[in-house]
Every structure is written in structure tokens, then in C-alpha cells.
From TrEMBL:
Family as reported in the entry's similarity comment: Belongs to the UbiX/PAD1 family.
Domain Flavoprotein: 10-189
Enzyme class: transferase
Keywords: Flavoprotein, FMN, Prenyltransferase, Transferase
Positions with a binding annotation for dimethylallyl phosphate: 169, 185
Name this polypeptide is given: Flavin prenyltransferase UbiX
SUPFAM superfamilies: Homo-oligomeric flavin-containing Cys decarboxylases, HFCD
Role noted for this protein: Flavin prenyltransferase that catalyzes the synthesis of the prenylated FMN cofactor (prenyl-FMN) for 4-hydroxy-3-polyprenylbenzoic acid decarboxylase UbiD. The prenyltransferase is metal-independent and links a dimethylallyl moiety from dimethylallyl monophosphate (DMAP) to the flavin N5 and C6 atoms of FMN.
Protein source organism: Paenibacillus rhizosphaerae
Gene: ubiX
Amino acid sequence: MTQTENKRRSWVVGITGASGSVYGVRLTEVLLKQGYDVHIVVSNAGWRVLGEELGWKTAQRELVLSEKFGGHPGSLYYHPVADIGATIASGSYQVEGMVIAPCSMGTLSAVANGSSDNLMTRAADVMLKEGRPLILVPRETPLHAIHLENMLKLARLGVKMIPAMPAFYFHPRTIEDLIDFQVGKVLDMMRIEHELFRRWDGGLAGQAKAAESGTKE
């Protein structure tokens, strides 16, 4: 990649083996559609979950990523999780930040304790040391004290936690609605505009006001 390409708007997206791989997939899709470049890292367990939950054929990983994410304005760059020498392993390589969605408790623990033994955790460590946004989407239940302590530790370091907790005030009708809500909350934290879900409008009062406005028009 040339120095000019490095200056384009780009994010790192990590997908771990926690349930909910669709969150990372949908986030990647939205970013590419908006013209962002995405550097994607998938853990070995993450690949298994992509197969189990989404039915992906993961034997040829780069090929399946090209099939799933091709044809968008943004460019996708795949980095094997074992490639500790990839561009995103260095703080000198410029990206906007990183999102791990979903984030397993194992990965969260490694990030919280500075264990950079693969590209996923190394890239997250780079975000911390360079002061760039790091957003985690933890997906586990129930949570025990170690999980919570690791989350608190990272939150105190400025890492943003957006647990996979869908809302229902916007009256979702499909699973896709719930997925888009979660991804939309992540995009809000990334300061990226979107229209993935209807925002809170004051409840019944807001709806009545909107109806009245529509009548006047």
C-alpha cells in the first residue's frame, strides 16, 4: 500500500469467536459502503463462528471475504491473525481507530492485560499506546467478576464498551433491525453518520408531535 492510500479514512475491524459475528460483518459492510477502508482481522475461533452462525465457507478465507464484501467504494484489507508484522501492528501506520465486534472475554482479557500475542491484540494495543479510539462490543452472559474488572480497567483507559444489548423502543420487527441498532450505536461512537435505526423522539409525545406536524403539512 502506498503512502497516499495510507492517508485514506480507514478503520480496523476485529471479529473474535464470541457469538454475534454478524455485528462485525454488518459494521464492515456499512463502512465499506460509506467509502471507508477496512482492515479486517478474524481470530481462528472467529472464523469458526462465521461458519457456524452465518454458514460461511471458510476454507478459502480471502476468497470468501472478497465475495461477501466486494463491490463497495471502500477497500477491504485482510490480515491473518498470526501476521504480527502486518501494517496495523505498527503505530506508525495511520488508521482512525479499531472496533472489535464481537469481542470475546478472552480477547478482552488479553487487551486489558497488554498481552499482544497475535495481530488482533497487538492492533488493539497500538490503539491504546497511540491514543486512538478503541471500541469493544463484549458478548457474553452471565458476566463474572473477572469479566467486569477487565471491562472497568479498559474503560478507565478510555476504551469504549458497547455491549451487545439491543433496545426495543424503536419497535424492531426483524433480527436485522436489532443488528442494525447495535451497529448503529458503534457508528455513533465512531462519529460516523448513519440511518440504521430510528432515534428516540420522546416516546408517545414525540410521535403525537410528528403526527400533528404531518397533518399540518
